[in-house]
Design goal:
mainly alpha, 0% strand, single chain, globular
Length: 219
């Protein structure tokens, strides 16, 4: 009974456009420190959609209609799909980096802070950049906007722009460095709209951050 109530509640939140819109605005404000400058508070509140999302997956796994063999098949199919998406993304990532290196000089405030975090605590940086940040940001900037923006081009444009803007919002040269984020963000938004699969963009985002991490460490 309790599980059924929780499941219905989560389904309601997922389908409710007003809730999705309000959650998108609230979490965007929190994660960019507009109203709550304390990072611990922002981090804890930003984890809420992840917990709900994970809970929904757990409920599906516990459902009577899903057997173990079916779960294994779905996992294999998902891994193959993600691997295929990453292969498609690699040339896009290379082109975006070439563009960035040619037309954009220096580092944004966000990049400088990340480099400082990497130097101070490489392990914590790795966990945050490759696991935590992709999950939080893709749920916030890709999954939530899709609940209330159904037009393809409007969704891709808005979700990509907000994602990029939030990475440079505290930078004095925000509209210069935003180009370092906008193109890959457009691709992530396009792939989510195309696949309707949040695991795809989380994986692409994680792969992107992993490549950046390896390049920084190796070079």
């Amino acid at each position: 009974m309790a599980t059924a109530i929780i499941f219905k509640f989560i389904e309601f939140m997922k389908k409710e456009k007003i809730w999705s819109f309000l959650a998108f605005i609230i979490y965007t404000c929190l994660i960019t420190s507009l109203f709550f400058p304390t990072i611990d508070i922002i981090f804890l509140i930003a984890l809420v959609p992840i917990l709900l999302f994970t809970l929904r997956i757990q409920i599906l796994v516990l459902s009577k209609d899903i057997n173990l063999n079916e779960i294994k098949c779905k996992i294999k199919a998902k891994i193959y799909k993600i691997f295929h998406e990453i292969l498609m993304y690699i040339p896009v990532h290379i082109i975006c980096n070439v563009f960035t290196n040619i037309f954009i000089s220096g580092n944004s405030q966000n990049q400088l802070e990340l480099l400082e975090d990497l130097e101070n605590s490489p392990i914590n940086f790795l966990i945050y950049a490759i696991i935590i940040a992709p999950i939080i940001e893709e749920i916030l900037f890709r999954l939530l906007p899709y609940q209330f923006i159904k037009n393809k081009y409007l969704y891709i444009g808005i979700s990509a722009f907000i994602f990029a803007l939030c990475h440079v919002i505290n930078d004095t040269n925000a509209f210069y460095y935003i180009w370092a984020y906008i193109f890959e963000s457009l691709y992530f938004s396009y792939r989510f709209f195309k696949t309707k699969d949040i695991f795809v963009t989380i994986s692409l985002h994680s792969f992107c951050n992993l490549v950046v991490f390896l390049l920084i460490v190796l070079l």
